[in-house]
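Curious: why this fold?
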Amino acid sequence: VSQSRNGRVIWSSSNGTTWTTVNPPNATVGNTGMTGIAYNGTTYVAAGGCGSPNTSYQLYYSSDAVTWTQVNPGTTSVYTADIPWVVWTGTYFVFPDQEGGVWRSTDGISWSKTGSTQVAGQGYAVANGATIYSPLGFGDPSRYGYVYISTDHGANWTATDTGSNNVMYAAGLS
């Protein structure tokens, strides 16, 4: 499964050989871009946004990567800004909002905000079990070059200075 701009989620049924474009409901409004997809073995969660608080959220779940259901923040109190990434830690789907909150879900449908007040990184993140690595992709220039690390499924975060003054957007594991 892959994501793209314009709110489309693209899925593959033949190991990357044949690709079919799928449009989740309401995902083509504005300058929407899906920024992350996570999978826990039974459920996909796709996330993104278009940059306008209170109207920009894009959070979907699917069991087959074909039929997508939008999570409604009116009934789950999810958040009010873009979602820069979503990961699966083995226990939780986790994503940060742009207001300093971190959200978790065991099923991709019901979400709760952690007690974390540390802004998780806004670049793209990777998870290795309970440990999440996320660089700060934009925002406060005094924090460029930092990678945020959580070792408890996103509940608490530590900012690690890499020594770079550059905006960092992606993380990877080897």
The helical segments are 73-76.
